Sequence to fold (280 residues):
Amino acid sequence: MLYYFNGEIMPAEACFLSPEDRGFLFADGLYEVARAYDGLWFRMDNHLKRLSHGAVFMRFARTEFPEFAGVADSLLKVNGLTGQNAILYLEVTRGSAPRTHGFPPPTTPLTCMAWVKPFASKQHHARDGVPIITTPDIRWARCDVKTIGLTANVLAHQQAIDVGAVEAVFVRDGFVTEGSHTNVMAVMDGMVVTHPASHLILEGITRTAVLELCAQSGIPTRMSPMTLPEFQQSQEAFLTGTTGEITPITSINGVPVASGTPGPVTRRLQNIFRLLTCGR
Ligand code: PDD
Fold:
């Protein structure tokens, strides 16, 4: 595959990262993951806005990255994926400089990298739903910033894999925040409930799209944190995210959610979400 690396398109093997890159040394970087459906990027503007939000927080020397929209299209083209379903990973770090905690000179170029791959969501997860576990949210207090510092997310997700679950959902001070790489929603009294957008969660592009779809379809929503017992006693629960789209949750810590099968609101949202992505 051909990658984008610091302004050029080149084979992965030709991308050389300095051992002094601040992404490597300090996890001093940001990333985004976006989907192309039939070659069209889903809400690329929103991904690039979120990247800018992170770059402002990080005080990067540059905070706007409009070039990635064109880069994403070029990567599809040069990799023979025009018109295909694909995934984009992009990363920006504060660049390469001798190790010291303070920022390097502002003239230090940021390291910018991106790749695409053919991609499809796991159909059996969408159809049958998935078991999840919960785990204490040991992350920092700026989860709205999509940094590459994902140690807590990696450990949580592996904890899920180790027990045969598909995702780990974080609980902070008794309240459900989000998954290791997904947002979490539940249906309670016919209302779709999810954690408000705050510093404690990543404001997912899929989450926003699903909330818009609820508004358009007359499904009431409530933005409020739910306790773990509320989550476990919900009528339906599901994950949202770029990779899994809308994934029903069938059990939480081994206890079935309602009947243990995907519920009607989740199914309805999956159907309208499909129209949003494939009906363009
Ligand atoms: N993760 N919450 C966290 C912590 C995430 O890492 C992600 C996305 C989401 C969902 O956001 P979106 O709908 O914009 O994908 C929520 C990406 C896909 C990843 O790390 O692979």
About this structure: The pocket of N-(5'-phosphopyridoxyl)-D-alanine is lined by residues 33, 178, 181-183, 202, 204-207, 240-243 (CB under 6 Å). The helical segments are 22-26, 44-58, 67-78, 123-128, 151-162, 205-217, 228-232, 264-278.
